[in-house]
Structures
1.
Amino acid sequence: MIKATGLAWLPHTPRDRRILAVVLLVLTIAVMVAAIAVPVGLLNRHYDQNLAKMTRQWKSQSAFNAMRPQVTRALESLRAKDVRKFFLKGTTSALASAELQDQVRQVVENNGGRLISANANPHKDDGAYRFVTANFQLNISNTNLRRMLHALETREPYLFNDNLVIRSQVPFGYRPPAGTPEPDLFVQMDVSSIAYIVADGSAGATATSRPPDGGK
C-alpha cells in the first residue's frame, strides 16, 4: 500500500504535472496582470471623470464669456434709461403714500369708477427701497373694472395690485331691464408701489440721491 504524503494531490504522471505547471503559470500571470490592470483602470476612470467635468466647466465658462459683450451692452442700455420714472417721487413715507393714492384715484376716475375711500397701510423699508401700500374701496362696472386693472398694470410709476376683492351689489340671477346701465360692483383692493428712501428732513437729499444702478 502506498503511504499518503502531503504531495499526494500532485499528478503522478509527467504529462499531468506539465499540464498543472502550465495552469499554475497562467493563473500566476493572470493575477499579476489583474494586480496591475485594475489599479490602472481605476486611475484612468478617475482622470476621465475629472477631465469630463473640467471640459463641461470650460464649455460653460466659454459660453458665458461669449455672452459677456451682449450682457454688457444690455446693462449699459439699462443705465442709460431714466429708471426713476418707474418709482414714486415722494421722498418721505407720507409724500409717497399721498402720491400713490393720487395715482390710483386718477386711474379709477379715468375709467368710470367712483372711489369710496383710500387708507394708507404701514410701509416697509428694504435697503434703499420703500414699499408703500394703500387700501382702496370703490364702485365700478364690470367692463370698466377690466379697463381699470389694465391701466393699473401698465402705468408709470409701477403699481402692483396685491389683493383684490369683488362683490356684486345685486341679487343672484339679477337681469337688468333693457336700456338700464350695468350695475356697479363693489371692489376692495390693496395697491402698492416702490419709492427710493430719502431720510426725512435731510437737506438736499433729493438733489443728491441717485438710483443704485447709476441712473442719470
2.
Amino acid sequence: MVSRKLAGSLAGSAVVLAALIGACTSAQSNSNGNTSGAAPGGPGSSGGGSNARSGPEPGGTAGTVDSVSASSFTVSTATGQKVTVNEASSTTYQQGTSSASASAITTGETVLVLGTTSSTTITATQVIVQPTGDYGSATSATAGVVPFSQGAPSTSKQVGQIPNYTEGSGTIVSGTAADQATEAALLAYPGGVVDRVVQLSGGEYEVHTIGVNWPHHVFVDQNFAVLGAN
C-alpha cells in the first residue's frame, strides 16, 4: 500500500512534470509561428500598413447618369457597377472645360465624379459632365477590365510596369494629387470605383479600385501617366 505521504509526493511530481511539458509545448509553438488566434495580416490583424483604411478616402468613378434627384444622382460605370453620388453645397460642376451648375447633370450624360468614396457611395467634391476622354464599355473591354461577378475569383494578371512595393505600404494622399491619379486610372481602365490613392516610396501612386474583378491596383507615375496594373 502506498503511504499518504508517498502518494502526496508522487502527485506533486506529476503536477511539476505536467507544467514542464506545457511550457515546452508553448515554446515550440511560438518558435514555429503563431498557432492560435488570427493569422498575421488576417482578420483581427491591422496588417501594419500606413495605407490601411480607417474610413472613407478620396477617389471617384466615371460612367453614365441613370437617375437624378434633388441632392444626389446614380451612375452606372462601363462594367455596370451602380454608384450613388451625393452632392453637397461645396460640390463644384464643370461641363466639358467650362464651369457649370448641378442642372448640367441629366439622365444619359457621361460624368467623371471626384470626391470621398465609401464603398459604392461617393460624396462629390467635383462633377465633370462630358469629360475629355472615353470612359465607355468599349474602352473598358479593350483595356481588359473584368467586371465584378459575385462569387467569381479575382483575376490574376499583370500589365505594364509595376513599381517595387509592398502591398500595405505608402501614404494615402488627397487633394489635387488624388484627383489627377484617380482621373488617369479611370481613363485607362474605366469601369471601377477608386476608393483610395496611395503614394509609394518611389513617388509613384497606387490607385486602388473596387467594383471590378480586375484591375485592383493601377499604378501612375509622378506626372500622372499610367505605368501598369494588376
